[in-house]
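Bug #2210: token dump truncated for HTH tetR-type domain-containing protein?
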Amino acid sequence: MSPGEAHVAPYSRRERLRIATIREIKDVARTLLVQEGPENVTIRAIAREMGMTAPAVYRYFSSRDALILQLRVDIFEEMARFMRGVLGQHPEEEPGRRWISGARALRVWAIKHPHEFGLILGPWAPGLGREETKPERHMSWVFGSVFSDLVADLWRVRGFPAPEVEELDPGLARTLTALSEDQDVDMPPAPSP
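Reproduced locally. Full output below:
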């Protein structure tokens, strides 16, 4: 270790077990989702599959909604990684090809994972992890950033007419400004100086 490097302690045994248990709970939940549908992803069913009690599972996830929400976060991230992998095969200077490839990648992922796609972007019933707002924003940024990057590439390479931020609906203006600032997206509209 060089003098400037800080030593980072590895996770304790207890932390590693907790991380592994959370991963297993989510894996079992996803298997249930795929095999039996979202309505059958229950804490009791997961506990039964894992040989645990339902109260033991609640130590890791406070509710079924919290578990489904985390599952949705993971699925959004997986889908975005898949799409970015496909987009990475095309130069940024070819935004048209990247758009087509991105749309095809989304379709391919959705066809290969119909149950997961239905959970995150399809019709849903109350109680499927959509009650919380902070992780929901994270999910939308993770997925939405794939497309905002494509729009930014198109803007950078080809340019296109864009209204001034003052001309937009205030809600849309706030959303676009937040996207531009939070995700470091370089495209209009931008607030006037």
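Output looks complete on our side. Residues 13-36 form the longest helix (24 residues). Marking as cannot-reproduce; reopen if the truncation happens again.
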